[in-house]
Predict the 3D structure of the following.
Amino acid sequence: GGFAELNWKAIEGITLTAGGRIDFWRQSSGSRLENKISDGSVLRNDTFPVRNGAVGNFRAGAHAELADGLSLTAVGYSGFRVPTINELYRPFRVGSDITEANPNLKPERLWGLEVGAEWSPTPEFRLDATIFRVWINDAVSNITITTKPGFNPALRAFVPSGGSLRQRRNLNRIEVNGAEAEAAWKVSERFDIAMRYLYTNPKVKRSVDAPALVGNRLAQVALHQGTLSAIWHPTDQWTLKVEGRGVSSQFDDDQNARRLSGYAVLDLYADFMVTDYATLFISAENITNSMIESGASATGLVSLGLPRVISGGLRMRF
């Protein structure tokens, strides 16, 4: 592949940028072999054809430096993603939920627009805000095929009672609307506060294979995420940090039937620089021992993320 970029300072305080990129991709030697454990006999031995292509993308933007520490930015861009080896060839199973691979997946295509502002009235304070809209064609997603128990001849998979069968497939169009904001305040030479917030609302706009999904939110994407952190350096050797994180509820499936609860956690961290090359540290993640729901199966089994974890050690630099 290759790329080129042009930066042009049109007038004082205004910079225009434009860029283009071309990527060549190729998939080859794909195969899937399954053997019977008891006697080693071959259950399936699939080989997949070579696929390749070329994709061009662009990026164009403008940045304006205004008075009183205010700047504005606008950007338009495109992108693409080739399906991974796992998505193409490797099935997986979690409990009674089976997800089949799909060797016929198309590459994803993306187009996006962003408008943002940054305000820094003093060297100690900065506030950023951005709104964005993204369109994704042929987004790869885990699509529910059936919840009926028994053998599915089309995908050659057996669905247990209470389970589900999914396959990775392309969703024709997804639209993502969102906004993010960040504030940073250097209270003193030794004390800093930062806050970050992200709102993301991805919805299915068109799906030929599964029209019932139109209007649903994408699985495993929370609408709201935020962090609030403070860092204190009481001396040149000590660093103390506290951070709170919050995530709103999200869905674990394409049908928006399995909701994962939101959560809030508190993390603590401290380190002490013994020498220029050695630092002692200790961290406590999820010190409140909050319950973090990371998955939900068709049978109602809920998977949990990390509970309270306390760790420490010696970090060496050479």
Remarks:
- The longest helix spans residues 85-89.
- DSSP finds one helix and 23 strands in the chain.
- Helices lie at 85-89.
